[in-house]
Amino acid sequence: MIKYRTKIYLLLMLPLITEAQQIKIDSLIREVNITQNDTFKLVLLRTIARNYAELNTDSAYHYAEKSLLLARQLHFKLDESGALREMGYAFLNRGNYPRSLQVFLSAMAILKDPEIEKRVLVGRFPSDDEENYRIVSPHTQRLSQIALTHQSLGVLYANSNNYEKAWYHHLLARQYAEQTGSVVIQSIVNLTMNRVYLNLKKNDSALVSIQQAYEQVMQSGFKRYLGSVLLNMGRTYAALGNRTLANDYYRKSLVASKELDYFRGVVASSLLLADYYTESGKKDSAFLYITNALSEARNLEAPDLLLRSYTALTRHYRAAGNSDSTVKYQALIIKINDSLFNAKQAQQFQNIDFEEQQRQQEVEAAQKALRTKWRMYALLAGLSIILFIAIMLWRNSRHRKKANLLLSKQKAELESVLSSLKATQSQLIQSEKMASLGELTAGIAHEIQNPLNFVNNFSEVNKELLTEMKDEIDKGNLNEVKTIANDVIENQEKINHHGKRADEIVKGMLQHSRTSSGQKELTDINALAGEYMRLAYHGLRAKDKLFNAKLVTELDASIELVKVVPQDIGRVILNLINNAFYAVNEKNASASSAGQQYEPTVTVKTKKLDARPDDPVGRDKVEIIVIDNGIGIRQHLLDKIFQPFFTTKPAGQGTGLGLSLSYDIVKAHGGELKVETKEGEETTFTIILPT
Questions:
Q1: What's the whole-model pTM score?
Q2: Which CATH number fits domain 521-690: 3.30.950.10, 3.40.50.10190, 3.30.565.10, 1.10.10.410?
């Protein structure tokens, strides 16, 4: 009883829902009549046509035609194609399939021309919706219209029982819809594609398609066709043999279709529920749903829906034994078939379809001929160019022979000059290396001086102790002799220790100072940096006793041995530290003369860098960083500092080869040498080496 009352309530609500939809449309029509803006009027007309599409096909066609005329007047070709699609859909709902096909094909012919993107309405209009998608670029709008037109052609071919062509157009529609990124258009395509899969007996594909449509409807919030989605979900589960679940979706579809004014969905879901109740033996409920469907089909004046409603009533009355009503509705079925779905219409549809195929073939043939023609032109142009080049080459060859004699003389002169330059460059490079060696030597001397001082001092002490021990032996004072002997032994151990220390310094410096063999060795980068820091400092102190600077080392203990040519990398470090000392010394001199407080500071850091995810080689790296708080480098000189022979030092104080050689050495190791500076504040040189 409750279910029956619910059915009656839903039927009574239909006129109210229809009336609400009409009120909305009437409001849009009033705006059309009031507005003086032709662009806004065009948008309103398209919106009215879309709102009438599932309500009144004659009105839908009327307003679509008005929007077509205005679009042509305003030269909006994209809107012209959209209006044609609305008109084609109206013809489809009327059952005039040949005319529908003609109009859809006219719309597609417009859309194939990319030039129409030059004049397109872009923006958000109050009456527009997501399906029209005007807020995106002109190109995306055209792709959207192409997708929807292919989808409409797919629906038309499906209604004409040509499911192979329907599938073909739906595939194209899905391809273009995905390019637009519009979830709304993708949901519409998946919805109608489901029906094609069902008719092709591809039930699994049908289920995937309708599930995607439902998810996309929920994601986008565009629920105009939710009733149709739920209806096709029910059809799919019915095809899969789950009648109970199918019936649940038919009910949900009926409710959603009524709420969203989708009256074709009301008719279709009502008829499917009627089938369900007929099979269940509930003839009264079945009859109620059939009459409900027939009423809506008459309101829509949709021949295909009337035909389905009459067919359902014919089956109902035949089963009830009511021959008069059976004959009545059979006659109505015959009338619709004779007037609309007849052999003449089918032939017209096939003729239009065939003509379109022929036209497409002609277009392809014309395009092929045009491509052949352009290839021929290109070939002739190429031959002309080759001939011209041949003439120019022959002409130039005569001049070249004359020029070659002069060039041979100039070449000999240049080679002589180049040889002299190379010899000079080699001498300068050797001078740079010798200068570095001199600084190293001064540093080594200081490093060795400390252990030598210890050796000399303890040797003299031992000499005195041995003399004293000799006197005690003569006196027979054995206890004092033993004490002196222990002191001698202890001093001897210290002499030995400092002697070995001097030996290590000499060996290490010889290792770093010898001519590079070019062979890479596993090297302790931290030890190398620290050692050259000390040597550079003491080397400069040996030349300038007044020089003083704060030395800071921050060495990363996690760095493992790195395979480098130690002599070469040592020269780079030494050069950068010497430059840092020069910078802080210059700034110190300026600060002293100005009476300013300044503490010269040079910092040497090392740091391990883990391989980055985007590094194709995927190797860890090591950084050696030399920082000074000196005079800095002027910005306009940064591009020149690595050039050979460029120097900012006064004449006679630098060759200009130090940084150039350092850059080449680091590059040869597969690394980088970078510089950052703030003029008057600090300079940072960074060596980056692969491990």
A1: 0.51
A2: 3.30.565.10
